[in-house]
Design a protein that fits this description.
Length: 280
């Protein structure tokens, strides 16, 4: 298994550059940053993680800006979104951002995506929550066209553009891996239809011992090989890691607390680095 680290950085606590360097120095494969463009004051959209939305959600920066800074001061660390809210972004602009970051980092970008849970937030961007999954698919397909074609065009219900030129193209061919999060009933269809991997949170939904074999069975039925599974927000629990290794999990992404100093985070990084070395 490969091991990454996620920590929602904010304008308080450790800086992105120092944290990125520390993650690479401790031997981790990847670093993952989340996204919320903003948090509506209304709580009409409940947070899936519990009754109270943590305050730090209001303070998340743009992940592409912070990941670019981290990529510039590291040499092998993969930089990743966990997750990018594609339904709240223009696909032509987002395709440019992804390709530029992959180019800047020398092919070290992983594109983790999701449909989002905050319906009010996406409505503020002009997105109808009822059609967000169809919109997500079209935007991903349109971005793939931009990344892989010299003169790209796309014609769908929600995304429609005539032939265009857009460079740079991603270093990774045909494009950076697209991993989708989620645990809902339509998630496996999305993984198999237009993504390269699945990135669920193991604490939500049915047990991984049921879901991972089901995904691989469906993949085989569609003529696809095994689907890489990256588990997001995993605890530093050796027993859980043993189970996930047995299930063939490709990547473990540890979550660290937010708004801490580097000195506070270093012992946590060291603890998880020892586990990663044991289970790698």
């Amino acid at each position: 298994m490969k091991f990454g680290v996620s920590a929602p950085l904010t304008d308080r606590g450790v800086g992105a550059v120092d944290f990125g360097r520390a993650v690479e120095e401790h031997g981790f494969e990847s670093i993952w940053l989340p996204e919320h463009s903003h948090i509506p004051v209304t709580r009409r959209s409940p947070w899936p993680g519990g009754p109270e939305l943590p305050e730090h959600y209001r303070r998340w920066p743009d992940p592409f800006v912070y990941l670019s800074a981290i990529a510039a001061v590291t040499s092998r660390l993969l930089v990743a979104t966990g997750v990018c809210l594609v339904v709240q972004r223009d696909p032509i602009t987002l395709a440019k951002e992804v390709a530029s970051l992959d180019h800047l980092s020398g092919g070290r970008f992983i594109f983790g995506i999701g449909g989002g849970w905050n319906l009010v937030e996406m409505e503020d961007h002009g997105t109808d929550p009822r059609t967000r999954w169809s919109l997500l698919r079209e935007r991903v397909e349109a971005m793939k066209a931009i990344w892989t074609q010299d003169e790209a065009e796309y014609h769908g219900r929600f995304v429609d553009f005539e032939p265009l030129w857009a460079w740079p193209k991603p270093v990774q061919k045909p494009h950076p891996p697209v991993l989708i999060g989620g645990n809902g009933p339509g998630t496996f269809d999305r993984v198999l239809d237009y993504c390269d991997g699945w990135m669920p949170q193991p604490e939500r939904g049915r047990p991984m011992s049921e879901r991972i074999p089901e995904l691989q069975r469906l993949a085989a039925e569609r003529g696809r090989g095994p689907i890489p599974v990256s588990l997001f927000g995993v605890k530093a629990d050796p027993g859980q890691l043993e189970e996930f290794a047995r299930l063939g999990v490709d990547r473990i992404i540890f979550s660290l607390p937010v708004e801490r100093s580097l000195e506070e985070l270093l012992p946590l990084l060291e603890e998880r680095a020892r586990l990663a070395e044991e289970f790698a």
